Automatic annotation (TrEMBL):
Lineage: Eukaryota, Metazoa, Chordata, Craniata, Vertebrata
Alphabetical keyword list: Coiled coil, Ligase, Metal-binding, Zinc, Zinc-finger
Gene3D superfamilies in UniProt: Zinc/RING finger domain, C3HC4 (zinc finger)
Name assigned to this protein: RNF41 ligase
Keyword presence, Membrane: no
Any GO BP: regulation of canonical NF-kappaB signal transduction
Zinc finger (TRAF-type) residue numbers: 101-144
Originating organism: Sclerurus mexicanus
Origin: domain of life: Eukaryota
Residues covered by the TRAF-type domain: 101-144
InterPro entries linked: Znf_RING (IPR001841), Znf_RING/FYVE/PHD (IPR013083), Znf_RING_CS (IPR017907), Znf_TRAF (IPR001293)
RING-type domain: residues covered: 18-56
Coiled coil (UniProt feature): 159-243
Pfam families according to UniProt: zf-C3HC4_2 (PF13923), zf-TRAF (PF02176)
Keyword Zinc: yes
Length: 244
């Protein structure tokens, strides 16, 4: 469906009217025969027909094209009243910007944001309604911290609510303690495994060092034996020299 022609200020060219609903074009599409339609209107028509509703020429969805640029510009420049005119909005703006205005219009009817409330209220009066809405959330005036969401909640038992809150806190604390305990145990196990691994590596290094020292001692003993033999040979040579 198009925009109600009664909302527009001044003359509206016949070419800017939908050939089906006869209102001003909304999301316009054009057929090869140059007749223009609202997108919703022509799509609905083509579900049951395969021709143009004006001249009965055959058309298909694939043949529909956007409106000519000059016609689109003429359409966007049309001036019209806000749809909330009946509620007091006196804004008149171009068709190109009307959607943006109406999304933010202070006279728009919007639902109350409180769960359970079915009241539709003008955007400009929403804050005042929320302050007195029977479905508004507020804390218990007795100080128990309970959030009152409806009129029935005003009769709640503060002691029972505090007990429930205490049990929840206790459960949360127990869970957190258990989580911390498991985390610490996991860390200790990890450190223990790391220390065992390091101890094994150190033990292997010690054994390797012992093996190296043993080999060095054996080499030293061999060198000392060779040295003694050389000394004896030198002493024997010295004796032979003296005899000569």
């Amino acid at each position: 469906m198009g925009y109600d022609i009664d909302r527009f200020v001044g003359y509206v060219n016949e070419g800017l009217l939908c050939s089906i609903c006869r209102d001003v074009l909304e999301d316009p599409l054009q057929a090869p025969c140059e007749h223009a339609f609202c997108a919703a209107c022509i799509h609905g028509w083509l579900v049951h027909h395969s021709n143009c509703p004006e001249d009965r020429q055959a058309i298909d969805v694939s043949l529909l094209r956007p409106l000519y640029r000059y016609m689109k510009n003429d359409l966007n420049r049309l001036q019209l009243h806000c749809r909330n005119r009946e509620y007091g909005c006196e804004m008149i703006c171009s068709l190109e910007s009307i959607d943006r205005h109406e999304r933010e219009c202070e006279y728009s009817q919007i639902p109350c944001s409180n769960a359970g409330c079915t009241v539709q209220i003008e955007r400009r009066n929403l804050d005042g309604h929320l302050a007195v809405c029977e479905y508004r959330s507020r804390e218990c005036p007795n100080g128990c911290g309970y959030t009152i969401l409806s009129a029935e909640d005003t009769q709640h038992n503060c002691v029972a609510e505090l007990r429930t809150e205490l049990e929840l806190l206790r459960s949360e604390m127990i869970c957190k303690v258990e989580e911390a305990k498991h985390e610490m145990e996991s860390r200790l196990d990890s450190q223990r495994r790391h220390m065992v691994q390091k101890e094994s590596i150190l033990q292997n290094e010690i054994e390797e060092l012992k093996s190296q020292i043993s080999r060095l001692m054996s080499d030293v003993r061999s060198l000392m034996a060779v040295e003694r033999q050389h000394r004896q040979e030198l002493e024997q040579a010295e004796l032979e020299k003296r005899e000569l």
